[in-house]
Specification:
Blueprint lengths: L1 H43 L2 H27 L3 H8 L5 H9 L1 H31 L8 H29 L1 H13 L7 H9 L1
Helix pairs in contact: 1-2, 1-5, 2-5, 2-6, 2-7, 3-4, 4-7, 5-6
Length: 198
């Protein structure tokens, strides 16, 4: 009995290390792509489009935060019932809930933190552009103002998103599963999940 417990602990530790490595690699590449893309857009776009890009980055972070919270708060029971009726997206929604720890880690930690970092760098680029002959404000004051606004919108948006996610977790997870159903091609993975759980 003790040997089995030790084996399971070893597997869990190996899984945690593997997941951490995957998160590290994924974060590095996603952050690199997002940072490069947003920087190029912020430099090439007009001030209005640059502001819009910054807002979109903040919204992406908030939306993924909502998804991460919803997945941990939702129950799979009503979604299993929908899956038995072959409702589109129900299988994907159940899989999201059964992998809630990984999904929430990716949504809240990976995407959320990346969006936070990128929005900060995008704000810095915006400050440089605004002070390049458009606004005569002191660059330090403008930097503090814009970074404070970014932080306020991000934190405020996530605070509102948390209550929204908890109240509507089932419908949010199902909506994400519905969207995923157009991408997912393997419908037998839920059966493999059931076998692993048993």
């Amino acid at each position: 009995m003790l040997k089995n417990k030790n084996k399971n602990k070893g597997r869990d530790h190996h899984f945690d290390n593997l997941w951490a490595l995957k998160v590290f690699i994924a974060t590095f590449f996603i952050a690199s792509i997002f940072s490069f893309s947003s920087s190029k857009m912020m430099e090439d776009f007009s001030i209005t489009l640059s502001l819009l890009t910054l807002v979109i980055i903040i919204i992406i972070g908030i939306v993924f935060d909502i998804i991460g919270i919803s997945v941990t708060a939702a129950s799979e029971v009503p979604l299993i019932s929908l899956a038995s009726k072959k409702a589109r997206g129900a299988l994907e929604a159940v899989r999201l809930i059964r992998n809630a720890d990984l999904v929430s880690s990716f949504c809240n930690d990976v995407v959320g933190d990346i969006c936070g970092i990128i929005s900060g760098s995008a704000g810095s680029i915006l400050v440089v552009r605004l002070t390049a002959g458009l606004i005569s404000w002191d660059i330090t004051i403008l930097s503090i103002l814009i970074s404070s606004l970014i932080a306020a919108f991000t934190v405020g948006g996530k605070a509102l998103g948390k209550s929204l996610a908890i109240r509507n977790c089932q419908s949010i997870v199902y909506s994400v599963g519905f969207i995923m159903s157009f991408i997912s091609t393997n419908k037998h993975e839920l059966n493999r999940d059931n076998k692993r759980r048993n």
